[in-house]
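User: I'm preparing a small set of examples for a lab meeting where we compare how different chains pack in three dimensions. I only have the primary sequence for this one, and I'd like the structure in token form so I can line it up with the others. Please keep the answer compact; I'll paste it straight into my notes.
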Amino acid sequence: MARQPQVTRTITTTKATVLVVNIETGISEEREVSVPRVFTKAKKLREAVEAVVNVGNERLAHIKSTETVETLYGMSEQDFINHAKILPPRGSKEDATENTEENN
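Assistant: Understood. Below is the structure token output for the 104-residue chain.
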């Protein structure tokens, strides 16, 4: 069978072991959460983890440990074409406007 062309990307994530508390029952549990990027500031890491964990009655109580993980992801070119969002060409005026709006 011929090798199928792939679209690949290496993504660095931060894997955190966290303590989560159910605010209704008071029951706590340890959980592993992965968030994209590497965080150098504890406040930014906490905000990213809270966005994932603080759902419904669950709240982040404590980040016990973290680990940086590099993972290679890939999919066939056809899957990429079917699922990817179409962007304006690099260097176009639309691209510059979007980047300015994102940074504000």
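A couple of notes for your slides: The longest strand covers residues 58-76. The chain has a mean pLDDT of 90.

User: Perfect, thanks.
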